[in-house]
Amino acid sequence: MSVIAIRGGTVLTIDAERRVIAAGGVLIEDDCIAWVGPAHEMPLPAGADVIEAHGAVVMPGLVNAHTHVAQTLLRGGVSHSRTLYDWLLNVVCPGLAAYSLDDHQSAIRLYAAEALRSGITTIVTNEEPSYQDSERATRAALEAFAETGLRVIYARMFRDQLSGGAATLFHEERSKAPHLADAPTTVPLDRTLNELERLARTYRQAAGGRLAVWPSPATTAATSAEALRRTARLAQDLGSRWTIHLAETTLEREIRPISPVRYLQGLGLLDARLLAAHCVDIDDDDIALLARHDVRVVTLPVSNCYLGSGIAPVPRLKAAGVTVAIGTDDANCNDGVNLFRDLRFLALLHRGVTRDPTVIPPGMALEMATIDGARALGLDDRIGSLEVGKRADIIVCRLDRPQTTPVHDPVATLLFQAYGTEVDTVLVDGRVLLRDGRRCHADEADLCRDAQDRSVAILERAGLRWPPPWPDPAERAVAPGSPSTSRG
Ligand SMILES: [Zn+2]
User: Fold this and answer.
1) What backbone phi and psi angles, to 5 degrees, belong to 272?
2) From ligand 1's centre to the CA of 458, what distance in Å?
3) Closest CA to 71 of 31, 102, 99
4) Of 271, 272, 393, 455, which residue is most buried, by most CB within 10 angstroms?
């Protein structure tokens, strides 16, 4: 049996009592937490591997409840200053269509490196493998995810039928970039659901229970009612959950006389198995329905602002009793994978919008990325807090850094002072993936070089063009005192 003892740090348990243990200790036996309490009382078996955590916070690993890992290689500039559907149809779809299986695996390795370094241990990734080779692509991706050591819910995303309004919008957006090859935007439903069920059953409990496969119909504007009903039934049969992009923009309300939340209610699909991402364009009646049916919501504040989609009413969702998790969304509409940064943004955004500095207090924010994130995924009996019997998904954040000094309330310090780079040790399922700032099972310099080279090649193959450089040459020619003049 492997035994690891983390001792000396401030332990944020995020258990039911929200215990904070100064100079605490956590004992890990194999993949589970065996003991939590004051360090001086901790039993220390002979041969235990001791991680000293003085000057640090020891807390549960963070849950990124909505992301799209593959898109990581499409960031770096090509995505900015676009609305959602311009970005989706003129960057994401043609970009992903130019990926090889090796490219996808490279994206997974890069993403994992960034995620682990900012304390993320669990993700829900919405992946849309190319239609031609989707099953092989999914298997290759799942193997690569297993190697990262992360806990991963692979939400297989699909569109089977565009509504009339969505088809018109898709056509208009695509016409902005006629030089790009057309990538398929819909897939056959039967084939997709059959494949999804096969994969979900094959990978159930794979990698020691760290992998799972869920269905993820993209939106109510791009999937049929039949697809939504069959998806929910499949999730029930599998004992899993399902997720969807819901009310991300005003599009869904423009194409139907009722809100997308009420549309799903009419189909009988609102319940705790549903993880609804975004929920930006919703009203008080929608919020009441989400609360009444215990639908889990994941908010994506940086992505919603990056794409100019709007701001989800998170304080009102919380006040109504809805479980709200947080996600980064794609790395190329954020452009990062860092929940510390996004939690701070979330809190400041809503304080500014509501003109109330008490909304999203630090404890609530951390809960959204830990225990509420776990609850949103139906995993709160296994992860999300430091309690005996739970899986050892643990991070150690050093607070003895300039930016996190002084510290009087470690929870507030984590929310408002930390950059995320304070994370220096990460365990998932009791396996040490990052220790004292060093990756244990990967060469990051190598994987970054590989990702950079592959990204350049993908953009070239896809024909993706860059926006005008800064400064814009056209503006430079006419602007007096512009950089071009001053630089000669
Ligand atoms: Zn998304």
Assistant:
1) -70, -10
2) 21
3) 99
4) 393
C-alpha 327 – ligand 1 centre gap (Å): 9
Per-residue model confidence (pLDDT) at position 479: 55
For residues 109, 115, 118, 124, the Cα torsion angle rounded to the nearest 10 degrees is -170
pLDDT for 481: 52
Check if the beta carbon of residue 125 is closer than 8 Å to that of residue 152. yes
CA of 248 to the centre of ligand 1 (A): 9
Distance in Å, CA 43 to ligand 1 centroid: 44
CA of 394 to the centre of ligand 1 (A): 26
**How far does the centroid of ligand 1 lie from the alpha carbon of residue 461, in Å?**
24
CA of 179 to the centre of ligand 1 (A): 26
Tokens of 122: 């669990």
Among 176, 6, 148, smallest CA distance to 87 is for 176
Rounded distance from Cα 119 to ligand 1 centre (Å):
21
| Orientation angle between helical segments 101-117 and 444-462, nearest 10 degrees | 130
| Distance from the alpha carbon of residue 468 to the mean position of ligand 1, in angstroms | 26
Scan for tokens 């990698």, then name that residue.
207
Cβ 296 vs Cβ 276: under 8 Å: yes
- How far apart are the CA of 452 and the centre of ligand 1, in A? 23
Cα separation, 369 vs 299, in Å, equals 11
Question: What span, in angstroms and rounded, lies between the C-alpha atoms of 399 and 411?
Answer: 11
Distance, CA of 249 to chain centre: 19
pLDDT, residue 484, reads: 44
Angstrom distance (rounded) from CA 137 to CA 144? 11
Q: Please name which of 155, 157, 183 lies closest in space to residue 170, comparing C-alpha atoms.
A: 183
The whole-number pLDDT of residue 486 equals 38
pLDDT given for residue 330 in this prediction: 87
Per-residue confidence (pLDDT) for residue 141, from 0 to 100: 95
Cα 311 to averaged position of ligand 1 atoms, centre (Å) = 15
> How far, in Å, is the centroid of ligand 1 from the Cα of 138?
18
pTM above 0.90, yes or no: yes
Spans in the chain with pLDDT lower than 70: 131, 467, 475-488
CA of 72 to the centre of ligand 1 (A): 13
CA of 241 to the centre of ligand 1 (A): 16
The CA-to-CA distance between both ends of the chain, in Å, stands at: 69
How far does residue 298's CA lie from ligand 1's centre (Å)?
10
Question: What is the amino acid identity at position 430?
Answer: G
188 burial via Cβ count (<10 Å: 0-12, 13-18, 19+): exposed
d(CA 339, CA 349): 15
